[in-house]
Amino acid sequence: MVSARQGPVFARILVVPATRDGLGPFYQDVIAVSPLEPWDAASAAYRLEILARTLPFPVDGARLVPSNNNDVWRLEHGYLRVAWRGDRSRLAREAELLGRLQGFLPVPEVLDGGGDDRLSWSLTAGMPGAAYEHLCVQPAPPRLRDLAREVAALLRALHSWSVPGDLADLLRYPGEDPDPLRRAGSELVLMPPSAVLGLIPLARQLPFVDHGVLDAAAERLAELGDLTTDGAVLLHGDFYLGNVLIHGDHVSALIDLEFARMGPRDLELISVVRALDAETRVGIQRPPLLAWLAEDYPELFGAADLHRRLWQYALAYTIRQIIFWPPDRAEADDLEVTHPLHTLRRLIDAPLPLFAVGLY
């Protein structure tokens, strides 16, 4: 049995030397057994074996579940999330945020947490429901439009929450780091978008990356100019269908707030827009989710220069993703169609196509 969280439990974890030269600087200090795929199941199991020596609870029967950013293990008493790349302190920030949001929004309870700068972890209680994305299919289920209204209301509530000053400072802290690589470990979109230019020299170090495309992307960002904003709100930071749970025909939880931040309201859109665009490119057809969101939460789309802003956000996100997901082959050699290298080439000429996902 895991007791209620009394505070982070920190313990030094065995330091395992790691060199990942082929994967670039984002992966230089990771603990893994696979030299070129440190995200694979074998490396995740190895990290769990190391971590288990310091955990205050057993991990017998742990089952690995899919995750884009962490190792996530289903345990009898909750979900163990292990941050092994990027900014490992993001789980501690998330734990602080979730503790404050309890009672205001349906978010997971953090039962415990700890680790160090190589492996950090949090244990969260399970939440009822299945991912919203499993319901967002064509033809749309009868209740889907009502669910979409609930999801929009949930997002509006998050953005309207009055963030205590100390928590706002904590969430802003990563953005004040002058090192763009460290920022890329804690933010999916560096702000202002021009800050992502600091990642371009690092992207040049990766094999199979077209330097001409990087140069053209930098020129496009410069042409688009600086962003203006009327104020910052609390953002989920990685808001998409998989991070909303549905139970009994209603929204039951908002999960995975590790990239939560303070920022302009419309920055929240880029995670939805880029994911829907990627799904369209692999043949997944969704209902008109963005059009519904625009009806239910029009303030999210209220900026007069939204077209330009989303273009900048998409460029910044995509350059960061090239560092996070280094290519294993050239674009012309069957590189995965959703790889950010393909997306960046498209973004030189135009923003991500909102019309392709139902918003005209």
Provide key terms for this protein.
alpha+beta; Phosphorylase Kinase, domain 1; 11 helices; single chain; Aminoglycoside 3'-phosphotransferase, Chain: A, domain 2; three-stranded antiparallel β-sheet
How far the N terminus sits from the C terminus, by CA atoms, comes to 52 Å
- Assembly context of the chains: single chain
Q: Widest sheet: strand order?
A: 1-2-3-5-4
Average pLDDT, rounded to a whole number, is 92
Coarse shape: globular
CATH class of the largest domain: Alpha Beta
Which CATH architecture of the largest domain would you pick? Alpha-Beta Complex
Query: Radius of gyration, rounded?
Result: 20 Å
Given helix and strand content, the structural type is alpha+beta
What is the β-strand count? 10
Major sheet details:
5 strands, antiparallel
Low-confidence stretches: 1-19
Q: Helical proportion?
A: 25-40%
CATH topology of the largest domain: Aminoglycoside 3'-phosphotransferase, Chain: A, domain 2
Query: Which percent range describes the beta-strand content?
Result: 5-15%
Notes on the structure:
The protein has 360 residues and is an alpha+beta fold. The protein folds into 2 domains: 21-124, Phosphorylase Kinase, domain 1 (2-Layer Sandwich); 130-357, Alpha-Beta Complex (Aminoglycoside 3'-phosphotransferase, Chain: A, domain 2), CATH 3.90.1200.10. The chain is 33% helix and 12% strand. It has helices spanning 41-52, 90-101, 144-160, 165-172, 180-184, 200-203, 211-224, 269-281, 289-296, 306-324, 340-347; strands spanning 63-65, 71-75, 78-83, 110-115, 120-124, 130-131, 233-235, 244-247, 250-254, 261-263. The strands form 3 sheets. Strands 1-2-3-5-4 form a 5-stranded antiparallel sheet, with helices on both faces. Helix 7 (211-224) packs antiparallel against helix 10.
